[in-house]
Amino acid sequence: MNPVVAINRRARSAEQKALRRQAVLDAAETYFLEVGYEAFSMTQLARKAGVVKGTLYLYFKTREELFLTLYEQSLIRWSEVFIGSLTDLMPSKAYAQVLYKTASADGIFLPLLIRLEHVIEHNVAIPRLINSKRVFISQVEVVAEHTSTALKLSKAQAREIVKTMGVLLIGATRADQGPSLDKEELPRDVQDLIVSFSSEPLFVKNAVRIIEGIRAETAPKI
């Protein structure tokens, strides 16, 4: 066989495989937005993607590996939206509000982020986990660079803020994972308690404290 023909066939095959894999991911994202994490079924995904279930495992060894890939896509997507929303000389509160709103607007990012370290990463192969951590490191650097400009901080300070915001975002948004009580008639004291633990004000208030605390650590002392 002509070696050029063989190379072209392999190239087309690799391209087709990448296209099929992305089509599965697109179907998985749509399905996830419909049913959420717990109800997500690989069998049902195969039906929606128009493939046999075994085909899914050619691309993703476990359900969690699929989730990890969806998370990486959403992380990159959120980073781009967040960076595009930043401005020069932002107040700490405005920065925190933009971070929360852009993260919450992505229906995939937060639901997977809050399950990442406790569930998803425990069910993927180590080489795959290493690759994912490198994606995370790369995105932290990108977001930190723009955070440094927006908040007028050093790159090291900005990197610390970005990492800490991720931890805070996980903790704050877990408060929203309880049962929905919007349609229930609740006593005033219980309503006030629920509002006090609402994730957005909780996140923003503590994010500002953290940003200002990191800023003050290296501020010149008078």
Verbal overview:
With 222 residues, this protein is mostly helical. The radius of gyration is 21 Å and the shape is globular. Helix 2 crosses helix 3 and helix 7 (126-151) crosses helix 8. The longest helix has 33 residues, at 3-35. Mean pLDDT is 86; it is low at 4-11. It folds into 2 domains: 1-59, Arc Repressor Mutant, subunit A (Orthogonal Bundle), CATH 1.10.10.60; 62-217, Orthogonal Bundle (Tetracycline Repressor, domain 2), CATH 1.10.357.10. The protein has helices at residues 3-35, 42-49, 53-59, 63-85, 92-105, 109-113, 126-151, 155-173, 188-196, 199-217. Helix content is 73%, strand content 0%.
Indicate the topology:
Blueprint: H1 3-35, H2 42-49, H3 53-59, H4 63-85, H5 92-105, H6 109-113, H7 126-151, H8 155-173, H9 188-196, H10 199-217
Give the class-level CATH name of the largest domain. Answer: Mainly Alpha
CATH architecture of the largest domain: Orthogonal Bundle
Helix content: over 70%
Query: Spans of 5+ residues with little confidence (pLDDT < 50)?
Result: 4-11
Going by helix content, strand content and strand pairing, the class is: mainly alpha
